[in-house]
Structure formats: structure tokens, C-alpha cells
Amino acid sequence: MLYFITDLLVLGCINSIMVVGLNLQYGYTGLLNFAFYTYVAIGAYIAAVTTIGPSTVTGVTWVLGWTLPWWVGIILGGIAASLLGALVFAFTVRRLRSDYLAIVTVSVAFIFWNAINTYIPLFDGGTGLFNVPYITGNAAISSEQYSGIMVLLSAAILALFVWTSRRLFRSPFGRLLRATREDEVVTNAFGRPSWQPQLWVFMIGCFMAGVAGGLFIFYITAWSPYAFLPLESFILLAALIVGGSGNYWGSLLGAFVLIEGLAELSRFIPSFGNGADVGAIRAIIIGAVLIVVLRYRPEGLIPERWLHWYSEAPSGLGARIRAIGRSG
Amino acid sequence: MQPGHRARLQDPAAPAINQFLLAVGFGLATASVVALAAVAVSLQVSVTNFINFAYGDFMTFGAYIAWTVAQRGVNFFVAIAIGGVATGLLGVIANILVFRPFMRRRVRPVTLLIVGVGLSFIVQNGITVIWGAEPVRFQQTLGDAMHLGPFLLTPGDLLMIGASIALLVLLHMMLTYTKFGKALRATSNNADLAEACGIDSERVISITWFIAGILTAVAGVGLVLQESTLDPTTGFTELFVIFGAVILGGIGRPYGAMLGALVVGILTEVSGAYVNAAYKGSIAFGVVILLLLFRPQGIFTTAGKMG
Amino acid sequence: MTVAAEDTVLDIRDLGYAYGGSWAVKDCSFTVERGQVTGLIGPNGAGKSTLIEMLSGTLTPRVGSIHFNGRDITGASPARIARLGIARTFQTPRMLARLPVIENVVLAAPNQIGENPLRALFWQRSFRVQEAALRAEARGLLEWLGLQDHVEQLAGNLSGGQRRLMEIARALMAHPKLMLLDEPTAGVFPETGRLIATRVREIVGQGVTVLLIAHNMGFLSAVADDVVVMAEGKVLTRGPLDVVREHEDVIAAYLGSASTKKMMASTGAAPDPGGASG
Question: Does any domain span residue B125?
Fold first, then answer.
């Protein structure tokens, strides 16, 4: 039973990290990125190939094959995803109408998927990578205990990224992001080209995606192209929209409810005659919920509000402690 | 994006020009299928101004209906017709239930795209629930491939080419000579102006969805004849090839879409003959990307949408 | 390219812009002198707004050149032009409707170190001082323009006249050397128009140069040192307002008749066909 809960939490946290990253890009800045899951995948792959060493099984190949510590691998995964994101952004920065931009990003996602799936020397093609070791190395740990450890790790990283989002939003940078999304003409007219804050946000969001991928692969200990079909990006987007875009609580809600909740709920749905039904029904529900939410509550379950982030009083934990000290 | 039956037909020993012409022939067959779907998409985009992401799944739906009916022993051509009508109705229902409420509120195109994605989830997975995820085959074998000049085509290919030409000619005549055709062209040019002239644009849109549905279903069947198998993802994987054709010809321009289909069909088959076939899909996506980035108005440009 | 005089802020030469095949602006040349309010007037369709769009970088001129303080800015991007010291308002006020008024204004201030995300993440204290100063300045500007009661309101809730006042505050926040005002009093109450006129003169007194489009002759006579008249994309004439509005070609351009001349002389209002006048 405990394992069930910890498993749920780990996956929930990892999915939340992804949605928080996507929120940074789409929810807050209005950049639609249908290739988001590709960055997750890159993070996963890079985290693996930099830590598991070279292949020892014939017929199974991958690039690099370094043996760095696991946490370095995760960070490298994030950086790789971030750099790739910058590259893609640079090519698509031409002002494309947002639905055309969406089509371009799906195309990019598919091309990457196709390349990874087909070009075996890269990441072992369609078979993928497996037997990725635990981050705890050779220590004798049961899966339940590992799951517990991963909960702590992923929750900590999630908290870090939520804090990051919050700090970015509650600043002049956050104001600029919001302004760029509301009316680009105005921000341009006052000296701020749109692509600058957008590029930052794109890279940071992709970094988060990459880190989530690294966590994922160390938890599931395997990864293959079938784990990151372009449709996964749509599901993340649906989670973001339903939960409420433009704010991180909405992201968390969307991730836990839509992705996790449904995944778990589907265990309780009896399957019909045919095989892949559980996943199919889940997808139908996601599609239907997405359409209904867009129709009746497009801002999502937790709507975005302007946060009056600036206050005259000094903020921060230190200041609060000093204030208590003074009054006590 | 499977190589399909064509992979078996390639003969490495044949001289290069023959290889090329063979590929062109395959391209024509592919183009005929793509043309129907691309014209359907263009028609719908021209009157509604957004791209429906669920079209691939409409194709799959049409093919499945035709297959189910054909399984019961109904004549092949009748089965296609029934599939067409069913998909037409699906299009109309999708328009009324799903898209129209959004269009009435004049939302951003991005929202409609996402709605289309949601619809795609529903249709594709609905098909999976009803028919299962395992691939099925059309029992009909219409005969083997035969040489026609430099080309190597199956009767299925020829059927599709013929059907495609016939339907497109019918469409052209409808657009040019009938009252509805004129109403459609007016609405696509300027919906508000058309309304002011007394054209009920919502009705035009509904009927356009129906026509698009029929074309899409026939394209779906054609696709199955080419790929030999049918599964819930068949149509969706073709979606970007179709988008490539649509964008090449100019979004919202059905005549351009026909030409675009020709180019895309031949291009993917020819390049697929020289490059690892597994990358064929990426070529279509690459075309879409390059077009949208550098020439979103298509290759055959003049101002205005239809004609 | 050498410029006429050191006091010339804006030097426009042979500027032209065409939408498709028709020229909205053609052979347009004039200069704007430092510390002056230059009005830009003319009937609708004269090309005034197109000219402003070229000056602010939104449109790239087909032909001709623009020099700002001696520097060639033809075809530069709006962001670059803004950074060089030109601020503008819009014909229909544009603002960030879901943000409070004060945020709208503070946004315009250049060189905000808090806009660097690394500082936002790691070193918040570094920009709080600047932010406090900017907010104080913004409040001051808003108060000066009579919007002190609306500072924290969402900008979308402002009335039309208040939006125009906010746009002026925002433009000033950028500490510009040149302000381009596109119909700053269109659709406002007369007392707001008078307030704007007074404030514009005070702004100019501080050394800012102003080029503005307007239709209301009363506003123009209160505010403009001289006017440039455009019609059908070309500059018709230039001079002080009283002189210019007696000019035959100018009257002909507007509506062209003796009765119009009488109407203009008696009421001081421009016979502006279909345009907004305050």
C-alpha cells in the first residue's frame, strides 16, 4: 500500500515538474511548445548515457557512455535539453502565427522522435535503454525504499522549481513576461524586443523538462521512443490548461489530477473485450475534459490573477525573523 | 509511416531512371489519396479559418466504417460510399457540437487547434475502443501490381487515381456552376460580406464539413489500400503529409492543394526511394516546417483564397 | 549624411511608404526642432499615422530617410528606436489591460536591472532599490496627470480619457528626448484636453521635443508652436497655425469652400470629415 502511495507521489512530482516548466513557457509567456516532451526525453537519454557507462551487451549501442555521478547526469540532461531548446527557438523565432508555430513544433518533435527511433547508434533506437541503475548504486534497496527515496528527491526538485517560477514571476522580469504576452507592440515600443525574455523562459522551461526526464529515467530505469510519443506533450498541455495556466498551483493541480489521477483511476475501470482500452479511455476522457474546460472555463480550474508582488516592506525570511525579534 | 507494399516492389538491379520513374508512379498514387484529403482540409479551412487537427482520425474513421460494412459482404464500392456518408456526418456533428461553439465566440486560432487535438484524442481512441488496436486488413484483394509503361501500379492505385480525379472534377463543377459552390466561394473570401448578401454562412460551413468528410473517407480507404493494413493510427500518421500539401498549395486554396498533393506525393516517394525509407515521414514534417517558416503562403501565390 | 542644424531633432527626407500599389506617404520631408511642439495635421487618409508608424519603427519606409539627432534610424526596429530615446502614444490607446496602471507605467522605464532573470532568481535585493525609485516616479507622474486614484486599478478599467493620460505618463517614464503623440485628445472631455495641453507644454519646458497628430484646432492652438500640414501623403505646407489655416491649399485639402473658411475662422474647429475631434 505504501508503495502505491509513494509511486503515485513520485510520478505526480515528476509530472508536476514538467507542467511547471510548460507553464513557464505557455502559461506565463504564451509560447506554445508541442515538442515539450522531446526535451524530457533528451534529458532522460543524456542523464543515462553520461552515467551508465558504455554498453556491455552486444547489439545494444548508445553514444557517450560516461560514468559520471547520477546527479551530474541529471543536470547535464537539463542543460542539453535547454541548449536544444535554444536552438529550436532560434529557428522559429520568426513571428509565426501561434497555431502555425504549434504545427512547426509538433513537426520538430516528430523529426526528433523519428531520428532517435531510427538511428540506432544514438540511443539504441526503438529498443531504447534499459537496466539503468538506481541512483543509490549497488546498495541493497527494495523497490519500495527506492520509491520513497525518489519521492524525497523529486519533491525537493519540484519545490526548487516552484520557488524558481515564483521568483521569476515576482520581479520586473515577470512583469516583462506578462507584458510581452499581453501586448507585444507595447513592449516593443518601449525598447524590449520580445525574443529576449522569451528565449530565457524557453531555456529555463526546457531545463526543467530535461531534469524531469533525468528523474524519470532513474526511477523507471528504462526509456524508449514509445515513452515520448508527441502525444505526451499534448497531455501535458491539457493538464496545464485544465489545471489553470499562468500560475504554478494550477500546474500542480493539473499534473496531479489529470495525469496522475486519471492514470490511477484507470486501474479501477474494467476493461472491455479489447486490449489497449484503459489507455484509450483515459485519452478520451482527457480530450473531452480539455474541450469542455476550454469551452466553459478557459482560464482553467485555478485562474491566473495578477500578483501584487511588490511591497514596500523588506521581504524574505531574514527580514521576517528580524521583525519578529523586534516585536517579541 | 510504413513503407507498405511498395518496399517489396523495388528492384535494386533496375537502372536509375527506371527507379526514378517507378517512384514517380508511386508518387502519383500517393498524391491521389493525399489530394482528396488535402482538398477536404483546404475547403474546410477556407470557410472556417482554422486547421482541424482531427482530420487524420476522420480518415481512419471512414476507412473503418467502410471496412466493417465490407466485412458483411457488401459490395466494395457501396462500402466506400457508406463510409463517406458516415464520415460526412461525423464532420457535421464535430462542427456543430465541438467547433461551432468556439467559433461563435471568436476565440484565437490556437484554441481551435488545441480543441482539434482534443477531438483527435477522442476519435482516435474511440476507434480503438470500438475496433481494438490490432491492425486489420481489407479482405478485398483487387489484383496484383501491373506494369503500365514505366510505372508499376496495383489496381487499387489505379482505382484511387481514377476516383480522385473523378471526385475532384465533380468538386470543381460544383464550386463553379452550382449555387452552393458560389456561396462557398463567397463565404471563404469574406464571411461577413457573404452574410450581408444573404448567405447563411453557418449552413455553408456545415455542408462544407459534410463534403470534406466524404472526401476524407475516400482518402482513408485509399490509404488503406496502399498501406495494406488499417489501425487506429493510420490516418493520424498521414496528417502531416496532408498538411504539407495544403500549405504548399496555399492554406485555404483547394486548387492549390491539388497541386500541392502532387508535389508532396511525388517528393516523398522519390526521396523515399533514395533515403532510408524509415525517414520518409520526417521528410513530410521537414517540408511543413520549411514551408511555414519561409513561405507560409504556399508556392503558387497570388492574393486571395479560391482560384 | 550631414544634418541641417544642431537643434534639429528629427530630419525626415523624401520619405515614402506604399501599401501594395498605392502610396500612403510620398516625398515627405520636414524637420522637427528641439524643444518645440510640432503639430501634424491634415484630413483623414493624409498619411499622418503611416508617418508616425515609420518614425516609431513599426513600418519600414520604402524610400527616403529618417535621422534622429543626426543618427540614421530608417527602418530600425521599434525596440531600437525606443532605446534611442523616442517614446510614443497610440491612436487607440494600447495598454496591458490585466495589469495595474502603475505596472503599465513602470514598465516603460529603461534599463531595469530586475529584468534580468538571473537577478530575479538570485539577487532580488539588487533591484528593489531601483524598483522603489521607479514606482515613486511613476506615482508622481500619474498624480501630475490626475490619475492618482487609479494607480492600483487594472488598466483595462480606465475610461478612454484616462487611458490617454496613462499613455502620456508611460511615455514620460521612458525619459524620452522625442515624444510622438498620435491624437492624444481624440475622444476626451474638453477639460481633459485642456489638462493634456497644459502638461504637454510643461513637458516641452523640460527639454523634450514633441511631434503630435491632432485634429482639434483649439488644442493645437494651445499647444503647437507650428504645424506641418499633410494631404494625400505629401507635405502641403508648414508654419504657425494661424498662418497655415488661412492657406488656400490647406482649406481646399480639408473641404474646400468659402463657407468652410468662414466656419474655421469663427469656431476654431477643423472641418474634419469623419474624424474624431475632442
Answer: yes
In one-letter notation, the amino acid at residue C249 is D
Instruction: Give the CATH number for residue B158.
Output: 1.10.3470
Question: Which CATH topology does C8-95+176-267 take?
Answer: Rossmann fold (3.40.50)
B245: burial class by Cβ within 10 Å (0-12, 13-18, 19+)? buried
Distance from CA of C259 to the nearest CA of A (A): 42
Contact C79 A188 (CB under 8 A): yes
Q: How far apart are CA B201 and CA B95, in angstroms?
A: 13
Bridge partners, residue C32, by sequence:
C10
Instruction: Examine residue B301 and state whether it is found in any structural domain, yes or no.
Output: no
Query: Is B19 in contact with B30 (CB distance < 8 Å)?
Result: no
| Inter-residue contact B222 to B163 (CB < 8 Å) | yes
ipTM above 0.90, yes or no: no
B77-86, pLDDT tens digit by residue?
888 899 999 9
pLDDT, tens digit (0-9, with 9 covering 90-100), for A172-214:
998 998 898 888 899 999 999 888 898 999 999 999 999 999 9
Longest pairwise C-alpha distance within chain B: 64
Q: Which of A168, A308, A312 sits opposite C117 (nearest CB)?
A: A168
Q: Is residue B23 part of a domain?
A: yes
Domain boundaries, chain C: 8-95+176-267, 100-157
- Answer yes or no: is B300 within a domain: no
- Where b means 16+ CB within 10 Å and e means fewer, A292-322 reads ebbeeeebbbbebeeeeebeeeeeeeeeeee
The minimum CA-CA distance between C176 and chain A, rounded to whole Å, is: 10
pTM confidence score: 0.83
Burial of B109 (0-12, 13-18, 19+ CB in 10 A): middle
Identify the domain containing residue B249 by its residue range: 6-294
